[in-house]
UniProtKB/TrEMBL annotation:
PANTHER family: CRYPTOCHROME, CRYPTOCHROME CIRCADIAN CLOCK 5 ISOFORM X1. Residues 152-192 are annotated as: Disordered. This is Deoxyribodipyrimidine photo-lyase. Residues 152-163 have a biased composition (Basic and acidic residues). SUPFAM superfamilies: Cryptochrome/photolyase FAD-binding domain, Cryptochrome/photolyase, N-terminal domain. It comes from Dietzia cercidiphylli. Residues 181-191 have a biased composition (Gly residues). It holds the Pfam family FAD_binding_7.
Amino acid sequence: MTISILWFRRDLRLADHPALLAAVDSSDEVLPVFVRDPVLLARGGVRAERLEASLAALSADTGGALIVRTGEPAAVIAELAETVGADQVHVSRESTPYGRRRDDRVRRALAGDGRELVETGSPYAVGPGRVLNKSGEPYRVFTPFARAWHDHGWPEPGDRPDDISWAADPDSGASEDVDPGPGGAGRGGEAGEQAALARWREFLHEDLTSYGDQRDRPDLDTTSRLSVHLKYGEIHPRTILAELADHPGSDSEGARRFVTELAWREFYADVLWHRPRSAWRDLRDTLEGMDYDEGPETAALVEAWQQGLTGYPFVDAGMRQLRAEGWMHNRVRMVTASFLVKDLHVWWPSGARYFLDHLRDGDLASNNHGWQWVAGTGTDASPYFRVFNPVTQGVKFDPDGDYVRRWIPELAHLSGAAAHEPWRAADGYDHGYPERIVDHAEERRETLRRYDRARGDGS
Ligand SMILES: Cc1cc2nc3c(=O)[nH]c(=O)nc-3n(C[C@H](O)[C@H](O)[C@H](O)COP(=O)(O)OP(=O)(O)OC[C@H]3O[C@@H](n4cnc5c(N)ncnc54)[C@H](O)[C@@H]3O)c2cc1C
């Protein structure tokens, strides 16, 4: 009787799971394991809570066979492998800087005992690092990457193995409990593989074709909300792409836009693979000399931003949604991030940290490169000098003010788009909404002055 270990990480599902298939093929029984890593849990925040819900669903899907342990992964995995006599530990290949370092440690610990860490598949349709240009170099700009990514293609989804022989816990009763907790808030908040598939198919049938027109509208709230499911690997993007290709609406503008958004996720993972330092440092150094603010006065402004009390309704609605739901609409992520960097003149990593601590879908590659895109320090050709106007963005993408009123009760009395500009209404501040903490027009000019100085174009 041979046993292999399947070590789950960002792949908490059983279908379309290349590493699981490899484990099943290589042994008579598979021991399913998850390791709670204190390093990751230390900054887990709402993600840790959501992870528990996902683990509870996975545990149920394995008929209770999932073993959960807390500890340093190299020690926990090597010890388990020795106890059950597993020659192979199967994983999906990790691409974050910490995940790669950790896996190197685990690989070395296993090799010391003549055992092997086997990497099969990844959380992406195309594994990070695989899409290269004709000179064998990584792409630095999104559009050519997306084209090459599409041309590269991806295999069909793998089947869910019919009958997996799960190995028994070698130390029966030692597996830690998982606490399903509230699971998650809002639509698509249910955790686990079944919930992820249900959410995806609901979106595919109901909202995909209108996605092209509606994806920028936080008031309509018709985006897929798959980010959190993708974050924990409850669904593989290949499954999504294959079902999308078979759908009658696959030629629609909505479908094309949706695939492009998935490609952004793949692009950012690829960038992080090639340039791990870009997680917390400016990717391009053209703005290296940029002057950012700090100190007590700035801290008070940042606190107002975090609490949703800037006096700019679209920004505040987003920040309140973030705290309440652990999720924020993409358009609003861009505008709130821009506000921190370009209206409050704060360097992007501090905002990226705050988002990661509060987003259930918090993902180092997408989040930190999303922030760099906004800050103008990232890969993309996005103009560094573009400064989102928080008022006109709100009026354009929440034209009836519904999104703002949903999150800001102090503005519930203002009808339609008036909710975006309480300063214009005689009773705008009657219910406790704060006045603007900065003057956007002035801060925009200040940002442009600082850019000129940083680039050596100004005085
Ligand atoms: C400042 C900032 C921070 C962000 N932080 C994160 C994060 O921590 N985790 C995260 O998953 N996404 C992040 N994004 C990207 C995007 O906002 C979310 O993926 C999206 O809002 C999730 O909602 P959805 O699943 O309904 O998206 P949909 O619009 O339905 O898109 C489908 C999927 O495509 C991917 N996607 C969409 N837009 C992007 C994008 N701009 N970049 C990368 N992938 C994208 C996501 O996997 C998403 O689930 C961030 C964007 C910005 C501007």
